[in-house]
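Hi all, long-time lurker, first post. I run a small reading group and we've been trying to get comfortable going from sequence to structure in the token notation. Rather than ask abstract questions, I figured I'd post a concrete chain and ask someone more experienced to write out its structure so we can walk through it together at our next meeting. Sequence below, copied exactly:
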Amino acid sequence: MRGFIINIRKAKNEDIVVTVLTNNSVKSYWRFFGARHSILQIGNLVDFEEKESQNNFMPQMRSLSQLSFPWIFSANHLLVWQNFIKLFEPHLKETTEIDSFYFNLLLQIANRWEKQNPKRLVIEAYMELLEHEGRLYDNGFCHVCEEVLDDEVGLMRAFLPTHPHCIYAAPLNKKSIFKLFNTKSTIHIEDKEINTLYNTVLKGF
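-- Answer (accepted) --
Happy to help. Here is the structure in token form:
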């Protein structure tokens, strides 16, 4: 079984509880002496076997190995990756069965992570996620006051557009943001705006 580690919690002694996003599920596993294993880091793609508990406790993670990527030893690439992937656990917290979209999205961008700007990939992946979940809001009205948006917009969590003054947000060009909504591409967006968008993503899905 393959999956991305999206959360790690300490248990007793050196044992840990690992939450893994696989092709069709989000599930937690008990790993004995997990604190000793460098493989068990948030964001890692791992291959493992699932062993059901005999006492109806959570299943165990066995025969663990890491499926690595070329960028894994780049501190900057790894930090952006971990910041992004840790957002999936609270977003999918009440879910056990999922469709393959989430795993495939992570696998797709992980394979492009060293070839493109990671922050741009995060934003583009987030746009895909919002569209997949039917949450892409682009009707031209402020989400706070419900008045027509002007030439500049602010963005709330989930990229909900507002007047900048309604949420005291950094102003962004409306045409540029709505082009992002339509194309799911950041190629036309300046680096300064990329940082603003990336920080908005980090507020949560």
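A couple of things your group might point at:
Residues 116-201 form one domain.
The radius of gyration is 19 Å.
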